[in-house]
Write a structure and sequence with these properties.
The complex is a heterodimer of chains A (119) and B (113). Chain A is mainly β. Chain A is built from no helices and eleven strands. In chain A, a hairpin with a 6-residue loop joins β5 and β6. Chain B has 113 residues and is mostly beta strands. The mean pLDDT of chain B is 91. In chain B, the strands form two sheets. In chain B, strands 2, 4, 5, 9, 10 and 11 form a six-stranded mixed beta sheet that branches. Chain B has a five-stranded antiparallel beta sheet with strand order 1-3-8-7-6, with no helix packed on it. The chains are: A mainly beta (119), B mainly beta (113). At the A-B interface, β9 and β10 of A face β5 and β10 of B.
Chain lengths: 119, 113
């Protein structure tokens, strides 16, 4: 249980283009989903928190117009990096939080991550 | 603001020994603390959660302790194996109402045969 998928796992794009990353909770409904980014040899930094059907809450310093988050259902959230630039190159990881039940601990379960490279 | 520190950036031990990783936090009293494992190029994998009223929790070869007086958690892997080599992240709830967690910088554990 508690499987979270991300697609794509790796993407290379040209500067100025937009990239969409999908995050799905496969076998549970997520009360909340989170988006993180991680630079090499650094820890995860929270970008935003989203609940199904409502606007995402962005962390300080994260541009909401650049990182668009859509939380369409209890099992799907998407992150769109708009007009990507080389400095946006990073490892983007989503997580989904369950409220427990089905033998799952009430905590965040992470996707495998998406490596974004902007040329 | 809350601060979470994992004292060792890297730890290298012999197979079969017990690995002990340390996590310290300041400026906060978290309701619970968690440990995750992260392999290169992968997302973190949840291992254990321990609550403030629990002193110790075990799962197979893993053991976590939580000392709210010292503001410290210890993570032990007994009978360590090369397959245990990974980065281990400590995390605590930043704000229980918002369910956000913050991560330590991680300890890169290497188990040599």
């Amino acid at each position: 249980g508690a499987v979270v998928s991300q697609h794509p796992s790796r993407v290379i794009c040209k500067s100025g283009t937009s990239v969409k990353i999908e995050c799905r909770s496969l076998d549970f409904q997520a009360t909340t989903m989170f988006w993180y980014r991680q630079f090499p040899k650094q820890s995860l930094m929270l970008m935003a928190t989203s609940n199904e059907g409502s606007k995402a809450t962005y962390e300080q310093g994260v541009e909401k117009d650049k990182f668009l988050i859509n939380h369409a259902s209890l099992t799907l959230s998407t992150l769109t990096v708009t007009s990507a630039h080389p400095e946006d190159s990073s490892f983007y990881i989503c997580s989904a939080r369950t409220s427990g039940g089905q033998g799952l601990t009430d905590t965040q379960y992470f996707g495998p991550g998406t490596r974004l490279t902007v040329l | 603001s809350q601060k979470i520190e994992q004292n060792s950036e890297a730890l290298n031990i012999q197979e079969g020994k017990t690995a002990t990783l340390t996590c310290n936090y300041t400026n906060y009293s978290p309701a619970y603390l968690q440990w995750y494992r992260q392999d290169p190029g992968r997302g973190p994998v949840f291992l254990l959660l321990i609550r403030e009223n629990e002193k110790e929790k075990r799962k197979e070869r893993l053991k976590v302790t939580f000392d709210t007086t010292l503001k410290q958690s210890l993570f032990h892997i007994t009978a360590s194996q090369p397959a245990d080599s990974a980065t281990y992240l400590c995390a605590l709830d930043q704000d229980s109402s918002a369910s956000k967690i913050i991560f330590g910088s991680g300890t890169r554990l290497s188990i040599r045969p």
